[in-house]
Specification:
single chain, mainly beta, Porin, 8-stranded antiparallel β-barrel, 1 helix, 11 strands, about 10% helix
């Protein structure tokens, strides 16, 4: 059972891993740093949400990778993500919600190399922690209306200030001689946070995204092949 105390501990653990990798990355033989970007579809779900259409958004940020063995990798992202839902039906009406978060997904991948070549299929899973930067809403489907900031007086009340989610999916990863890497991934994030700062919204955000990333090796001494980038290890 997921409890608030468990989520708090997981959040602290994710932040600790992120900070540790950020500090240690330049000294690690298989560390890479780069960028990640992609479109995302999200919708709201929860106890008082009667209906919700998907809403387009974008995820963009910095990506830190570390291969701790030939077949295993950990990724830490520092990202801005747009979430929410269109035509969200709750008691009293229907509204479009936009939720912006500063998010830190931490995932672990298992790499399955294809014919021992430069490409690998990599299923992954992890934990995502996000801090809300904006919540806005407007009457559902009214493209001419401007989004207004959420408050305790707007329909549904204020949204949760901290987002917890379980990201999982699969990536196609390409390694280049010298250690740089390209990835295309399909990622689904199951929202774990239900409730709001005022205890009224009782909703979580589920997101599907297609992400593109490229990362540069921080180890200029790497001379391995793409599927085994540093045989000195």
């Amino acid at each position: 059972m997921v409890t608030a105390s468990n989520m708090l501990r997981l959040g602290r653990a994710a932040l600790l891993v992120s900070c540790t990798l950020l500090v240690a990355a330049p000294a690690l033989a298989q560390a890479r740093v780069g960028f990640t970007v992609g479109p995302a579809l999200s919708q709201l779900a929860g106890d008082v949400v009667e209906t919700s259409d998907t809403q387009w958004g974008i995820m963009i940020g910095l990506n830190f990778e570390y291969e701790f063995s030939r077949d295993w990798q950990i990724d830490v992202e520092l990202a801005l993500s747009q979430k929410g839902g269109d035509k969200v039906g709750i008691e009293g009406g229907s509204y479009d919600y936009r939720l912006d978060y500063f998010e830190i997904p931490v995932t672990v991948s298992r790499l399955f190399w294809l014919n021992d070549g430069p490409w690998a299929l990599a299923p992954f899973a992890g934990l995502s922690v996000g801090l809300k930067t904006k919540c806005a809403l407007r009457p559902a489907g009214d493209r001419h209306a401007e989004f207004e900031d959420c408050t305790v007086d707007t329909p549904g009340g204020d949204t949760a200030g901290t987002f917890y989610g379980l990201p999982l999916g699969v990536a196609a990863r390409r390694r280049f001689p010298g250690g740089s890497a390209l990835a295309i991934e399909a990622r689904y994030t199951q929202g774990l946070t239900k409730g709001s700062e005022m205890g009224e919204m009782m909703a979580s955000t589920n997101t599907f995204a297609v992400m593109f990333s490229f990362a540069y090796s921080l180890d200029k001494r790497s001379h391995g092949t793409p599927s085994q980038p540093n045989p000195r290890r």
